[in-house]
Amino acid sequence: MRTRREGLTLLATTLIAVWAGFGSTGTPAQDLRLDHTNPEHLKPRTLPHQTPYLRPLWPGREHSYLVYNFPKPLETLTVPDNALSRLCRLGAFGQPQFGGRLFARSPERVYGVGAADGRTLHDPQTKAKTGYIYFFRDADTSRCQVLVAPEGKVAPYAVTPQTP
Fold it and tell me: Cβ contacts of residue 144 below 8 Å, gap of 6+?
């Protein structure tokens, strides 16, 4: 049978061991470091049956038409318009949200196309000028940029419509 003193010593030793964390490295903040996480949960999730998703050019718009095909970058023929780009980012200037869309292709990317005719351009503030073609880079995003070119400057690159 143990004495009272031995019992208190055993209890104190047990409480100190529990309080110290059974071999912890120091303070609780040091024990909960996040720099040594399990690397398995940082890997991208891929399932064997998944196929890569290819986003269509403009979802829901099956009737998109190529109207310009440029052999060189479009920035060499156009001028960026900051005021119209700001309106495009706000949704107040751009291509219509219904029906088909017109687009232009250059070696580095695809652009949306609009003109001041009223059918190919959403322009409720009537900022568009007649005789100019408006090209939309990253249309329908908060990074939309509007490039402007005179109609005569881009006319040689117009694509003839294909008839069935």
Answer: 85, 88, 89, 94, 136, 137, 138
Torsion sign over Cα 118, 119, 125, 131: negative
Q: What is the DSSP letter of 96?
A: -
Q: In whole angstroms, what is the distance from residue 16 CA to residue 20 CA?
A: 6
pLDDT in tens, 72-106: 998 889 999 999 999 999 989 988 876 567 888 88
Q: Exposed e or buried b for every residue in 15-39, given b needs 16+ CB within 10 A?
A: eeeeeeeeeeeeeeeeeeeeeeeee
The answer to whether residues 20 and 14 touch, using CB atoms and an 8 Å cutoff, is: no
Q: Kindly tell me if the per-residue pLDDT of 136 is higher than 60.
A: yes
